[in-house]
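<tokenise_the_fold>
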Amino acid sequence: LRSCSPGRARLTNASRHAYLVARFGDIYAQERLDAETLLRTYVSDMEMVQRIIYIAAVESFHAAKMAYRHFKMRVRKTLSLGHSGPESLEDTVLDYIVRHEDLYDVQASVNEVIRSMNMNPKISFPPETDFIVISSLIRELCRVAFSMQTLIPPLDIAFGIDGELFNETKYRRSFDSDFTAPLVAHHVWPALLENDTVIVKGEAVTKR
């Protein structure tokens, strides 16, 4: 294994950050709606459709972060054997990962997400079909989430729970919300965080 030029990850951090934040927005605007349309052919309840997509996003980030940790450990173990500088081992590891993100086994993460969704008591699917129908959305989310771990600092999504107090800083209300209701009934899309600060708002449904 050979590292690329010193500091590549740091040098490209700002441009990668901008691209990934924009891509997260694109997935919300395009792939999410495609998945919603597809799910509506199997599930008549719009709330269930929104819950399925939100949980897919949360599980995708979880699976991609776990995969990144394991990938980074393997790269560090291999590169440490011959590392001599001038950049730090951590920078060399990060540079390698940024350059070889195509080695990320995204399909393994997609399988993990679908397994987790199948065990989630909050969502259900008609027995004749499977969550695999939205695997293209899950794949894109896993790819973006994995790449976001290579940023300094990494990006993550906010953890939301049903019944939490609606937070204007964190979420937009969905068009079918009760705009006077103070509590979140369920979430449509997660907020994106950098150092626990919201940089892209999510979407939530508020109802009394």
About this structure: The chain has a mean pLDDT of 92. The CA atoms of residues 41 and 141 lie 22 Å apart.
